[in-house]
Amino acid sequence: MVKARTSLDKVVVTADGEGVVSHAGTALLVGLADRVGLTEALSDAMAPTRQRASAHDPGVVLRDLAVMLADGGDCLAALGILRDQEGLFGKVASDSTAYRVIDSIDGPGLERLRAAVALARERAWELGAAPKVVVLDWDATLVTAFSHKAGAAATYKKGFGHHPLLCYLDESREALAGVLREGNAGSNTAADHVRVGELALAQLPARALDGEIIARVDGAGATHDFTQWCRDRVIRFSVGAKLTEDVLQAALSLGDEAWKQGIRKDGSENPDAFVCELTGLVNIDAWPEGSRLICRAVRLAEAIQLTFGEVDGFRYEVFLTDIPGDIRDRDLFHRGHARIEDRVRDGKACGLENLPFQSFANNEVWLLLAQLAQDLLAWSQALLLTGELKRAEPQTLRYRLWHTAARISRHARTTRLRLDRHWPWAQDLAAAFTRLQALAPT
After folding, report:
1. 172: nearest Cα among 135, 140, 203, 141
2. What is the mean pLDDT of residues 1-9?
3. pTM of the predicted structure, to 2 decimals
4. 280: left (phi over 0), alpha (psi -120 to 50) or beta
């Protein structure tokens, strides 16, 4: 005899309810896109592609696609998440219409869309989403292709797909720029880092360009051309460097007095990490004037198999920077680059895990939309959310807020969205809608 473990056998299920909607919280992202001027800017950018007064504004279609990706969709068909709830999201384009909009975007069109996002970003910053410090992080990632697609190729990890290069703003977690590249694109191609850097700078409001900007990259960015570009653009840099034999020997030749205890993010000392400065001990004249070479030694776990750079129980790593200050602070700052791994993971949770089209140009648009979805999440957290929700990852936001069910009703020209009062985050979502309505319109 099978013993029932739930009470579902006592539940009566009928299909006669009215006014119930799911994904009620996702409407917050639609409203935010309108409030910061993103929808209007996208519509203006897409105006040259609109041949007639069609039923769907192409800019609105792109906004809906970005919202769908932020909500968790990963293909055009997922646009049905919005389309199937007309009472909440209005009339949403069909999959075929959305594809035609994407397919109509050429190179100049992509540049217009980037400019539109920059306008919305400036507006979001004016409303309070601006970071205090502008730190740009670069990183590349692999996107697997499971069928033949333009630009897909064998990757350095023996997979098959694409190798986009991305740039994020560290403090605000905004996705500033990205370029889609073939799967066999090099990791340390200076021209690609510079191209992404120029696209990232074009996304920054004018007042941010007047302040200090810092570029932070792992060893892939340790090229003379990239650091010189930073110098030419008056940008400070902190880039991973190659640990060569002469650099390692210079570090090993230093006495204990030359090493300082590494510090953690909270300012406490780390007993397993030490840093020293190798500037002057190793020839770095080929790098921009004022460059510094800093070495970090981290204690290894016992019984680990040693490789080059791991000596006497320590792993040695080095990086180049032209930022003045205590070497421990510089080390702590450079290690902050690891946070971009979280941003890339969030990007893959917003549509970057799969490039759905055969066309390289169409997938370039998809990359832009995936990064725009991340921007919408970042702006919503900066402007509308509080507490731990301000730093929550996309999956958490979906469960707690975006996918919340509600009852929608209309009376006396007022639309009311009634959330379940027992849902733990109902008050947070209601407060977010209140903050949205309080934002000054464009």
Report:
1. 135
2. 62
3. 0.93
4. left
